[in-house]
Amino acid sequence: MTIIDGKKVAADIRAELKVTVDKLKADGKSVPGLVAILVGEDPASKVYVGMKQKACDEVGLYSKLDRLSADTTEAELLQLINQYNNDDKINGILVQLPLPKQINEDAIIEAILPSKDVDGFHPINVGNMMIGKETLYPCTPHGVVELLKRYNIETKGQHVVVVGRSNIVGKPVANMLVQKKEGANAIVTIVHSAAKDLASLTKQADILIAAIGVPEFIKADMVKDSVVIIDVGVNRVEDSSKKSGYKLVGDVDFASVSEKSSFITPVPGGVGPMTIAMLLQNTYLAYSKS
Ligand SMILES: NC(=O)c1ccc[n+]([C@@H]2O[C@H](COP(=O)([O-])OP(=O)(O)OC[C@H]3O[C@@H](n4cnc5c(N)ncnc54)[C@H](OP(=O)(O)O)[C@@H]3O)[C@@H](O)[C@H]2O)c1
User: pLDDT, tens digit, for every residue of 71-80?
Assistant: First the structure.
């Protein structure tokens, strides 16, 4: 059994990007720029945005953080997005979700220029992904596909079962893997909470992708021998032995499932670090097409 080291792969991607950005600087060119907009004081969002800023700095990207108060109106946020849509120094605009309830998330996502939508959530980018065009792909699903590629895990003709159908993970990862291209070309099944006999479906998986949001939901008796496990879940569970009082676990019961699997991502250190690496890659892609 091989543990897929997402932390290392993400560090490799950042290092590769740093070489590219250093070359831009040496050639006297501008560097890719990313703005993160954080509305309100959600503690988890603050942590994520901080991690993104740190990763940008490490790679040498131009990064900017706009912190807005929790009572920001939708009109004010739309105006700010419009300003960055027209700012040549900014190639990627990231609005950290969730947003306070007075702001319509769809309206905000649709206001970002598709060419600067580094989260890959704009309907134009989602549509391009769906029809198999190169585009700005959503970061977490893209990170999953990249991990499979970098570990040379065959996807062509393999049965991928995705548990979860969210717009940010389940649906896009299924979509990316079903495309008729290198690194995809899989037979894909999406399952969700309406499944009548979930285990009979997950047991068919050559590659199982769990994006459920329920701690350690996938157990050993739900998978077949030699399955490849990609665990997208990040769940906090109480752990009195930790200083913080909690630990992070995935959607897969790692202890039992790892014994049956051929490859498995750990939590933390699997898919999680890939999300930010792919965000940086998207910012470079947006820059290179500008
Ligand atoms: N690593 C990262 O960077 C990253 C990024 C995003 C998310 N995540 C993590 O990934 C997990 C999923 O996130 P998400 O945003 O996709 O969650 P979500 O929007 O809550 O979607 C969860 C999906 O799982 C399905 N589901 C829930 N309980 C189920 C059950 N008992 N049986 C079968 N299906 C079930 C739901 O089915 P229905 O549609 O029928 O309700 C839904 O489609 C979370 O732990 C989240 O923290 C990690």
Answer: 999 999 999 9
Question: Which residue is catalytic, options 5, 116, 117, 119?
Answer: 119
d(CA 280, CA 56): 7
119 assigned to active site: yes
CATH of the domain at 264: 3.40.50.720
Neighbours of 147 (CB within 10 A): 22
Query: Which domain, by its residues, includes 42?
Result: 28-114
Q: What is the pTM of this model?
A: 0.97
From 166, 173, 265, the mutation candidate for ligand 1 (largest count of ligand atoms within 8 A of CB) is: 166
In the residue annotation, 52 being an active-site residue is answered as yes
Regarding whether 148 and 240 lie in a shared domain, the answer is yes
Measured from CB, residues less than 6 Å from any atom of ligand 1 are 140, 163-166, 168-170, 192-195, 198, 211-214, 232-235, 251, 271-272, 275
pLDDT tens for 200-241 read: 999 999 999 999 999 999 999 999 999 999 999 999 999 999
What letter represents residue 268's amino acid?
A: P
For residue 158, indicate whether it is catalytic. Answer: no
Residue 170 CA, ligand 1 centroid: distance in Å: 7
Report whether 118 contacts 136 (CB < 8 A): yes
What would the pLDDT profile of 23-45 be if each residue is shown by its tens digit?
999 999 999 999 999 999 998 89
How far apart CA 92 and CA 115 sit, in angstroms, is 8
